[in-house]
Design brief:
The protein is an alpha/beta fold and about 350 residues long. The chain has a domain of about 240 residues: NAD(P)-binding Rossmann-like Domain (Rossmann fold). About 40% of the residues lie in helices and about 15% in strands. The protein is built from 11 helices and 12 strands. A 7-stranded parallel β-sheet has the order 3-2-1-4-5-6-10, with helices on both faces. A 3-stranded mixed β-sheet has the order 7-9-11. The chain has a two-stranded parallel sheet with strand order 8-12. Strand 5, helix 5 and strand 6 form a beta-alpha-beta unit. Helix 1 crosses helix 7, helix 2 crosses helix 4 and helix 4 packs parallel to helix 5. The longest helix has 25 residues. The chain starts with a strand and ends in a 14-residue tail after the last helix.
């Protein structure tokens, strides 16, 4: 297939681009190259005849129309989004504009292209979303595909809105869509403003390791390369109009996760004395911080035969090793706006 991947210079999008090219798909990477994007993420495929790059904003209908016409994709994988909860607290407007209006522009451009092509049954619009649209869980239970939406942050509200738009375009216009909602991703090329890269890089720099509240918030962790594999599977074999929850089956509290990272760092790059865990610092909690996310992956396992291949312990070891070996990638990104600052405290 020829895939149009939006946000392909970002964290998850670049993992999809790298895997898709490795599997022989043509890929058009459409990215606006905002602060969290990095073309180094796809440098390993940049010279492939299967790869093309288009710098464009998903809110720009004229640019989208030109790109669809020029590249004639067989499917769209829509990952472009503003995604950092703390930034959404400080500046929700960018999240509404990109995640809601941008998704609308993508849907309308894709629909016009699909209609002009004679409504081919093989076309797919795959919308990639998050488990955060479902809100917050208590100590037990898991999100399923039928869990009512209950977003709690500007970020999750904007993604919930985009999910609803995609479903509406399927039911109203017949656009052939599939949807996925994933748990927290981690792994190589993770932009250094999210928890795991922040902890690794702060630890190496001898800085405090900030943990919101008491560290009891629980997330289900999904290795990004496992996620990319699942996304390509859903694109190829998912039922039209169907949504699939993609989870890592690896729940950990934030405090447990950070302690595990510290233990791995103690082994891989030991300090002169003491443990990296000595740098753990508890800070004021994020406003409206969801207590727990957990995904029930039964549907994707039963219908498509997928489950994650990497445990969180193995994935964290791979991730730490990657950051230790790739300072040339992450060091320049630390100078970008907001990186290394405490955001999301204005509520």
């Amino acid at each position: 297939m020829k895939l149009l991947v939006t946000g392909g210079a970002g964290f998850i999008g670049s993992a999809v681009v790298r895997l898709a090219v490795a599997r022989g798909h043509g890929v058009v990477n459409l990215d606006a190259l905002t602060y969290a994007a990095c073309l180094e993420n796809v440098a390993c495929v940049a010279d492939s005849p299967l790869y093309a790059f288009e710098q464009a904003d998903i809110r720009d209908r004229a640019a989208l129309t030109r790109i669809f016409a020029a590249h004639q994709p067989d499917a769209v994988m829509h990952l472009a989004a503003e995604s950092h909860v703390d930034r959404s607290i400080d500046g929700p407007g960018d999240f509404i504009s990109t995640n809601v209006t941008g998704t609308y522009e993508m849907l309308e451009t894709a629909r016009a292209y699909w209609v002009a092509k004679g409504r081919p049954e093989s076309f797919r619009f795959h919308h990639i979303s998050t488990d955060e649209v479902f809100g917050s869980l208590g100590p037990t239970g898991q999100f399923t595909e039928t869990t009512p939406y209950d977003p709690r942050s500007p970020y999750s509200a904007s993604k919930a809105a985009s999910d609803h738009l995609v479903q509406a375009w399927h039911h109203t216009y017949g656009l052939p869509v599939v949807m996925t909602n994933c748990s927290n991703n981690y792994g190589p090329y993770h932009f250094p403003e999210k928890l795991i890269p922040v902890i690794i890089l702060n630890a190496l720099a001898g800085k405090p390791l900030p943990i919101y509240g008491d560290g009891s918030n629980v997330r289900d962790w999904l290795y990004v390369e496992d996620h990319a594999d699942a996304l390509l599977l859903v694109l190829a074999k998912g039922a039209l109009g169907r949504s699939y929850n993609i989870g890592g089956e690896n729940e950990r509290s934030n405090l447990d996760l950070v302690r595990t990272l510290c233990a791995i760092l103690d082994e891989m790059r030991p300090k002169a004395q003491g443990s990296y865990a000595d740098q753990i610092t508890f800070v004021a909690d994020r406003p409206g911080h969801d207590a727990r996310y957990a995904i029930d992956p039964t549907r994707i396992r039963a219908e498509l035969g997928w489950r994650p291949s990497v445990t969180v312990e193995e994935g964290l070891r791979r991730t730490v090793a990657w950051y230790l070996e790739n300072e040339a990638w992450w060091r320049p990104l630390q100078a970008r706006h907001g990186v290394g600052e405490r955001l999301g405290v204005k509520a």
